[in-house]
Amino acid sequence: LGEHIDYCGYSVLPMAVEQDMLIAVGPVKTQTLQLANTDPLYPDFSTTANNICIDKTQPLWHNYFLCGFKGIQEHFGLTQLPGMNCLVDGNIPPSSGLSSSSALVCCAGLVTLTVLGMRLSKVELAEICAKSERYIGTEGGGMDQSISFLAEEGTAKLIEFSPLRATDVKLPSGAVFVIANSCVEMNKAATSHFNVRVMECRLAAKVLAKHKGLQWDKVLRLEEVQSELGISLEEMLLVTEDALHAEPYSREEICKCLGISLEELRTQILSPNTQGELTFKLYQRAKHVYSEAARVLQFKQVCEAAPDNAVQLLGELMNQSHRSCRDMYECSCPELDQLVDICRKFGAKGSRLTGAGWGGCTVSLVPADTLSSFLASVHEAYYQGNMSRLAREKHSLFATKPGGGALVFLEA
């Protein structure tokens, strides 16, 4: 739980799936970085190991590797790196909201660190990879990279930021999580959807801060407004109701609220691929973020208290999360909504989109004793009869337990 709130400064509650990304690597004496992929859909790529250039206009597969590589290079201030031959393999469905891109960035960072014979803590690696994935052009937070490194088998994690830390959250027995892929692919770096939401949250934070008499120009995240005011998330929802209106804000209205010019808005606040946006929904985005942050804490509390109806309570929080993603954050799509409805109809206690949205997967909480019938029913209702979905179902519908984080296997 915790969709689209990490980049707003709030804690999230993810678990790692059992699927993974693997890179076999061998250092070479030349300064050439040679990348190959076991999947023929992803062509080979070669470049010099120094002066890495990442093209933000084309989120090609190898650019995610280059993000992790460049992150380690810049962290240590290295100018001359050895070359590597790398073979990439993985069974995470791409563009499905299961963080295949972040897994590749993290794997590349770990591979580079290992070849260089250097050491960093898992927390340091997570922070470097979260920062370096932004080279691709998405203004994301750090949830995906953090769980990629800090995950432990058998437990979910509460991930907190500034400073980054992780706490075990034991999930209730008697239920399993099921991933179902809508088969609508969404690469968040290929559109402006994701960055527009980041910018709307940033603008909402600034307008809320100005409304409450805070130093708004220093504020970047919605969590900072709450911290400055020293009030609860529930109270922040009331502040949002009072300070923001539901109608979209024009650029001119935002400038009037903040007392700045259009040029200042464009050059000092908006990111390059959001400068063409004419309107911004501030109220809806802030409402989602503050309510979702509260749901994360409630989810953890339920897991810790472990009442008899824990699965039911957790399922309802997941359902609330999806409604908020759909209605307030507008990051769902018709196929995801259909799939969520199907999953609930056939016994899921809770179901929601996972990942950035606009396509990709749902995650559902399903009683363990009904798993077989649930999988069969969802297969028939969503995949059967649709040839394109059916062809991809092998990697599209599966139960998963909390998996472990990144590992290095050294050749004996």
Account of the 3D structure:
- Strand 10 (350-354) and strand 11 (361-367) form a beta hairpin.
- Helix 7 packs antiparallel against helix 10 and helix 10 runs antiparallel to helix 11 (310-327).
- The chain starts with 20 loop residues before the first strand and ends in a 12-residue tail after the last strand.
- It is an alpha+beta fold and 412 residues long.
- It contains 14 helices and twelve strands.
- It has a domain at 6-169: Ribosomal Protein S5, domain 2 (2-Layer Sandwich), CATH 3.30.230.
- The strands form four sheets. It has a four-stranded mixed sheet with strand order 1-4-2-3, covered by helices on one side. Strands 10-11-7-12 form a four-stranded antiparallel sheet. It has a two-stranded antiparallel ribbon with strand order 5-6.
- It has helices at residues 61-76, 100-116, 122-132, 143-150, 193-211, 222-229, 233-243, 251-258, 262-269, 282-305, 310-327, 334-345, 371-383, 387-391, and strands at residues 21-28, 32-37, 45-48, 83-90, 156-160, 165-169, 175-181, 249-250, 279-280, 350-354, 361-367, 397-400.
- Keywords: ATP-binding, Kinase, Nucleotide-binding, Transferase.
- Residues 63-150 form the GHMP kinase N-terminal domain.
- It comes from Rattus norvegicus (Rat).
- InterPro entries: Galactokinase, GalKase_N, GHMP_kinase_C_dom, GHMP_kinase_C_sf, GHMP_kinase_N_dom, GHMP_knse_ATP-bd_CS, Mevalonate/galactokinase, Ribosomal_Su5_D2-typ_SF.
- Residues 1-27 form the Galactokinase N-terminal domain.
